[in-house]
Amino acid sequence: MATGAPDSQARFGQSVKGLLTEKVNTCGTDVIALTKQVLKGSRSSELLGQAARNMVLQEDAILHSEDSLRKMAIITTHLQYQQEAIQKNVEQSSNLQDQLNHLLK
């Protein structure tokens, strides 16, 4: 039985070595997965920051557009007043022309 003990210890040592190697491989795989997740989280943070900056730019563009639309509405109103005034002047000049023609007869 003395010869069986060293053989048994060698198998036990090999078994422990195999388990240790398996655990090291598993740990390495877990570290790689964790690193990928951290990098992904970092990238997500960058994308979220970029999205926030883009949102601010879009909000500024919308506010600028609203301001431009208000100004255009004011200009449209003024142009309508001017059109009405021109129409009245045309009608009055037409009436004056009729009066002049009547006086010249």
UniProtKB/TrEMBL annotation:
Subcellular location: Lysosome membrane
Main location: membrane
InterPro entries tied to this protein: BORCS7
Domain of life: Eukaryota
Cellular component GO terms, alphabetical: BORC complex; lysosomal membrane
Database matches in Pfam families: BORCS7 (PF16088)
Signal peptide: none
Key words, A-Z: Lysosome, Membrane
Any single GO BP term: neuromuscular process
UniProt family annotation: Belongs to the BORCS7 family.
Descriptive protein name: BLOC-1-related complex subunit 7
Protein source organism: Tursiops truncatus
The gene coding this protein: BORCS7
